[in-house]
Specification:
The protein is α/β, with parallel strands linked by helices and 262 residues long. The protein contains 12 helices and 8 strands. It has an 8-stranded mixed beta sheet with strand order 3-2-1-4-5-6-7-8, with helices on both faces. It binds NADP nicotinamide-adenine-dinucleotide phosphate (NAP).
Length: 262
């Protein structure tokens, strides 16, 4: 695999590093020296505040800064020859061409969209590859990204939508769970018992849907019989525009991902 570097070693890079720890030789960069010391202690890796030094000494370079910092980072890396390197970007919105057009001799780029399930090695990651990526590059990218549970290759044009579904998904699902929990508490249930029941409900529902032949509507009709409590709740959700609200959340996230790519 060679040496793997992470530029912008924040939350998401840390989650990926956590899935790869012990197996690979890794290096990380960010501006905060204190945060780098903490990463050295946590993962037994080398660190630097010099992004060009990191890129020069690594075979695979993960780019993990915020999209807003990407242009500045490209200038910092202008002196590095990327001809023998594989770049893996996790930046929302930034297309593969953003990197190939700005980095010297950079042609082999993977654009990945991970999610924070990686923190517990239950991540979902989609990735697209540049035309110049070799089968070996694709294999390596898949091994690294799949270490966090599930990785799938997609077309680059699908990634902004994926950003809004699985990239933002952990926060969207938490938002939905918090609404359910707040409503339960409003009706007198204790927070701890509400939370435990909701977490287990999500796990059970996902596991059932993942392994059964039923689609969502089939499953809902199984639970929501006519005249019952579940049906009353779902009908209220439809009346109050829950579908429209969720659709608006996804549309807004896709729109923002596209803006970040400009
Ligand atoms: N969070 C998610 O759920 C998620 C999901 C999918 C994709 N992503 C993508 O992942 C990327 C990182 O997101 P995040 O949530 O991990 O953000 P984050 O925690 O803020 O991490 C970004 C890191 O970049 C470092 N940084 C900023 N400027 C830098 C520079 N010039 N050189 C080196 N390091 C620099 C920052 O540390 P210093 O201030 O110490 O430099 C910071 O720790 C984003 O592009 C986002 O689109 C995030």
């Amino acid at each position: 695999m060679g040496r793997i570097g992470f530029i912008g070693a924040g939350n998401m890079a840390g989650a990926i590093m956590g899935c790869l720890a012990k197996e690979y030789e890794m290096m990380a960069s960010r501006r905060s020296v204190n945060a780098l010391r903490a990463l050295e202690d946590q993962y037994d890796i080398t660190t630097t505040t010099d992004n060009a030094e990191l890129a020069s000494s690594c075979d695979i370079v993960f780019i993990c800064v915020k999209p807003q910092s990407a242009e500045g980072l490209m200038s910092e890396l202008s002196g590095v020859d990327f001809s023998n390197k594989l770049v893996i970007s996790i930046l929302a919105g930034k297309r593969i061409s953003f990197f190939t057009e700005r980095l010297t001799n950079c042609t082999r780029v993977v654009r990945a969209m991970p999610n924070l399930g990686l923190l517990v090695e239950k991540g979902a990651t989609a990735y697209a590859v540049s035309d110049a990526c070799t089968p070996e590059d694709e294999y390596k990218a898949h091994i690294l990204l799949n270490a966090g549970a599930y990785a799938v290759k997609v077309e680059e044009d699908e990634i902004d939508t994926i950003t809004a579904v699985s990239g933002c998904g952990p926060a969207f699902i938490s938002y939905f769970l918090k609404s359910l929990e707040d409503a339960a508490i409003r009706h007198g249930l204790g927070k701890e018992i509400a939370q435990k029941l909701l977490f287990q409900t999500v796990l059970g529902t996902c596991e059932y849907l993942r392994t059964s032949d039923l689609d969502y509507d089939g499953f809902i009709s199984k639970v929501a019989s006519k005249g019952g409590a579940t049906r009353a709740g779902i009908d209220a959700g439809k009346r109050e525009g829950v579908d429209e609200a969720i659709s608006a959340m996804v549309d807004a996230a896709i729109g923002r991902a596209r803006e970040l790519g400009k």
